[in-house]
Amino acid sequence: MPNLRYRRLGYVALNVTDRARSIAFQRETMGLELVPGSEESAGVSLLTSGTSSCDLAFYDGDAPAMRRIAFEMEDEGFLELAHAHLQQLGIPVWTVPDAERAAFGQQAAFRFREPSCGLTVELYSPAAAASLPAFRRTFTNIARLGHAVVSVTDLSSFVRFFLDELNFRVSDYIGECAFLRCFPNVYHHSFAVVPGSENRLQHVNFMVDHLDDIGRSIYRLKHQEVPVVYGPGRHPPSGSVFLYFTDPDGFTFEFSSGMEEFPEVDPRAARHLPFVPESFDYWGSEPAAAFGAVGKFAALDGAEDPAGSLH
Ligand SMILES: [Fe+2]
Hints:
36% strand; globular; alpha/beta; 9-stranded mixed beta sheet; 311 residues; binds fe (ii) ion
């Protein structure tokens, strides 16, 4: 396995059924802002919390779906290493259209499908000249896009692929559920996977600065009649205080505060917690049926070219 190094979870792309409605929810409830220009240049709506050039990407779809997950490599050398390794494994990779790379602020990028469950993954290096918009906190006080969690039918193959082929590390297990770091990113998990009856998104997380930001969200969501589907509570593995809610398509989003950080050298070993409700929440809340219920992995849209090269 090549010694791949990542900077962070880049963004999550979703197919949404009513783009204007989904964007309004992100602006009014999540506190994200629309990145100007991307709809005209690339046909995709990019949304940012102000801490990155893009945290979410919305495309039109007949049904809500998880379109892809993107990770930012430390530099183009690691991207080339990953590209060569996947080709060696016989995994088809394809290019990212120039207009999208420009809109996303990427120097180079490619996409492929995770072989066991078909999730589209994008790896990219940021454009050297990419300049972030001026840092601007909004009312939700988001610190960063934190993590995404997916549920899959073949969990062991999926986890093995990320650990053995992409140099992710595991921070903890709850039963089979695996909490993964994109090495050497310090956060307890930027990606996690749980067992499920179908391959789909479970939730997308944004980390906020303070516990008070979670508290304010509780009342704001209530006022806006947004369904809270799990929490507030505290996750034992990462120590995060959490609050989960759904958007108009039914996608589950999370705000959380606080998370264990790992050193690059000599991190603690992964723990194995039992698969019981107390391993997911110290405080005793229980997920509603709508928690993590929407967001099957999208099929390829035909515009993507599995024969593509690294660009
Ligand atoms: Fe989470």
